């Protein structure tokens, strides 16, 4: 079955108890036990809930895993996955991972003596050079944020396997429709489902999928004991959002490519970062591991003043953090997602004050172009 059909028919779309075509929101904390000698499948919602379970089984199917987990945010998902490691374990993390991931890796898990090395994984040799005796895993994100840098998943996975390391991929920017790292050999995939999976800017949530039984048991232990679970109502919102993932992304990615091409020709735009453009560094690698360039792009304007003018005058994109919604969202990384990084460090990474990131929504492409044209004038 192809992906679009799988979104609608994956075995978790009908409520087994009632036949309801929309999985009911089992808004309950606990479950009556009819027979104390034969306890039922569910006992308490932190440990398991039918609405959440339908979502967890769905993400497992869509990513090609054996088990899925839903958490109260993308960061809860990432933190819970990193909690399967122990003190003195060493993890290699991409140096331009999501800011929140950088924060917990650099100033939270170190309290528990989990060792982290940050490195630029766009050059996979850096992984080899960072491996120590106690290295247990690599954690990466591709394309990265906000410059859409590309990491070669197959090469990184091959190196990790040679050294017996677990590969964890934050797949938020692509979603399982565009990129499925488990199918390429990764062990764990993480999503901020707040973004494309939810798709409507109305829920904060995280998902995890794995294809390894031992890792699944470890993640379930953390999910149940740490307890950062997703509630039934929010689980339902994700099940609903997921059904249109393909049609949303088909339109948004096509629109993003057209916008990237149009921006490339604009005289006030100096750089466009979009993995669907042939001239984007690593675009060939990206297109060998993902379906298309995705729905997020970044661009640099001639001056900081132009960038600020754009952010002030744009009307068809919300000025906000986050991405992946039905509405386009323009963000200004130096004042938003990357404000906490010291200026010099930021400049080194190419995150300058003329950089704008755009998440392309479902507005008519031509309307977006007209609006952006005006905002840049
Ligand atoms: C937003 C985001 C996160 C964090 O997810 P939350 O749902 O905000 O906690 C993690 N990784 C990436 C790539 C993101 O864009």
UniProtKB/TrEMBL annotation:
- Tell me yes or no: is Amino-acid biosynthesis among this UniProt entry's keywords: yes
Q: What is this protein called?
A: cysteine-S-conjugate beta-lyase
Report any one BP term from Gene Ontology.
transsulfuration
* Source domain of life: Bacteria
List, in alphabetical order, the Gene Ontology terms for molecular function in this entry: cysteine-S-conjugate beta-lyase activity; pyridoxal phosphate binding
Q: Kindly list the GO CC terms recorded for this protein.
A: cytoplasm
What this protein needs as a cofactor is: pyridoxal 5'-phosphate
**Stored InterPro entries:** Cys/Met-Metab_PyrdxlP-dep_enz, Cys_met_metab_PP, PyrdxlP-dep_Trfase, PyrdxlP-dep_Trfase_major, PyrdxlP-dep_Trfase_small
Which organism does this sequence originate in?
Clostridium oryzae
Keywords, ordered alphabetically? Amino-acid biosynthesis, Lyase, Methionine biosynthesis, Pyridoxal phosphate
In terms of Pfam families, this protein maps to: Cys_Met_Meta_PP
Q: Which residues carry this modification: N6-(pyridoxal phosphate)lysine?
A: 195
Q: Does the keyword Amino-acid biosynthesis apply?
A: yes
Q: What class of enzyme is it?
A: lyase
Query: Which family does the entry's similarity section mention?
Result: Belongs to the trans-sulfuration enzymes family.
Instruction: Name the PROSITE patterns on file.
Output: CYS_MET_METAB_PP
UniProt-listed Enzyme Commission number(s): 4.4.1.13
